[in-house]
Structures are given as C-alpha cells and as structure tokens.
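Changelog note: in this version the structure field was regenerated for every chain. One regenerated record is shown below for reference.
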Amino acid sequence: MSGEHSTSRVGAADGPLLQQLLDQAPAMIAACDPRGVYLYVNDEFANACGSTPAAIVGRRDDDLTPDGMVPRLLRPGESAAGDANAAVGEGTIGGRRTRVLTVRYPVRSPAGDVVATCLIASPLANDDEIRSSLESAVERNTELLRALDQMERLAYTDRLTGAWNRRHLDDAAVIEMSRAERHGFPVSVLMLDIDHFKKINDTYGHLAGDSVLRGLATILQKRLRPNDRLGRYGGEEFCAILPETALANAAKIGEELRALVEAHAFVADDKRINVTISIGAGCLDDSMDIAGLYRRADEMLYQAKRTGRNKVCH
C-alpha cells in the first residue's frame, strides 16, 4: 500500500470475494497509511460519515470538511508501538449519540514494517435499548413458555373433564410401576364407573351427562392426594393410580369417594340427579404388566356392578 493509492476499493488482485466481504460488511471498516491518508473505507464507514468512499479515500482527516467529516471516534490513527487495541467510546455518528466498539490494528509488510492502520467499528446499543430488548425477550420467552405449557396440557388432558387422558394415565402407570419395582412400594389402582349413566343421558340429555362427568372429576380430584393420578379411562369410566398404597388402603379411599359422590347434589335444569358409582380396586404384584394391573381393578369393578352397584370391591 502507498499514499498514492487513491481508489476506494480493494484491487482486483485481492479477489472479488474479498472485495464483497469488505464492501458489504455490517461493520464500519477503514484503513490509513502511516501519514494518515485513507487507503480504504467501506460503504458502512462512508455512510456513518455522511459521505461516499470516493470522497474520503486518498485524503487526510485535516483535508476533509466540514469538521473533518470523519468523527474522531472513527479515525484509524496510528496504533501506539504498532499494537492492536480495542475500546468502547461514544460520539456523534449520523447525527445521533452512539456508543461504538472500535478495534484498531496494524497492517505489516513482509519485512515487519507497519504500512497501515485498520479500524473496524460496530455500534453498541445504549442502556435503554438494551433494557428494552431484554424486557422484550423476556416477555416473548414467557409467552412461548405459556404456549408450550398449554400445548402440553392439551396433549395430556381430557378436554371435557380436565382429568388426564388415557395416554397420560398409561405413562403415569408405567412410571409408578417402575418405582414400585425399584423400591418395593405397593401401587394400587381404582377403576370407577358411573352407575346407569345411559339412563342419565336418556332422561336429562347429553349436556346434563357431560355436566355430571365434569362434576364427578372435580369431586374425585379434591379427595385424592397430590401424588395420586386421576384419568378418564373412557366414556363414563375413570381410573385413579395410587402410588405407595396397599390394597386395603386403596379400598378405603374408594369407599370415601363412593360416599362423597352419593351425597353430592348433581343438578341439571334445576333438577337434582342422583348419581352413584361402582369401584374396583386392584394392587400390583410381581407378575403384572400395566394391562394386568388395569385388568385386576376392572374385574373388581364388574363384580361391584354384578352385585348391586354403588359399592367397592377389591
């Protein structure tokens, strides 16, 4: 490079790709020879100075008008002792106060002599912009997490009753059976079915039937413990998985649920609907898989129905 070089672009010998990289870089780039003559500036740098590359290259800061044209913050200058340095400064660029990160470094000849100083500068957001960006990012992230949580709930929840759906119930059963196998905990299951549900639909209508299903899910959920898992097994049938619960205790919980439902005032169109449930309880043993555990409780449920309904069998 030399002071007589007066073009605003890298020569063709340096390759078209290098030319494009410099000219289209989002940072402000400029280079001066040791006398302070501009050898190269890219469009981003020239725009920040309110000028063009052709109007800057080949001239010194003292030759440029008005007020030097190039903000002092962006002048490459000579790096002391030929060392690279980086700094954050603030100045007026494009008519507004701007914080800028500047990196200045020497360009050396093959013999090691400093033949130019290059500057690369990037504007930094001010504190208000940073704060606004962070707040916006936090808000968007919160909205995303809320949407993901809602999607997850929809994926695992029965829409009518709010209880877990069969898919989530099966997942919970597998997890609790695995825990029971590792730690020797008992696991019990309650199968619950509304007695004569078809008659409720035929007498009061399907909307009333839906109301009964929702009310039943609420009653069951309130009595069950935080670690118990309630799901809609299908139709008017529900299933409750009771971790760390022996069969006798499961039957006791089942009896409490049965009594709560019988005493509850289900109402549709200002008419009371008498609702009872039958319950079967089963407990995991070493030979069972998930289907076997469900089947054990289901067999007890049908025994409750065959022997008069509104009872718990285990």
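Spot check on this record: Residues 1-13 have pLDDT under 50 and may be disordered. The radius of gyration is 39 Å.
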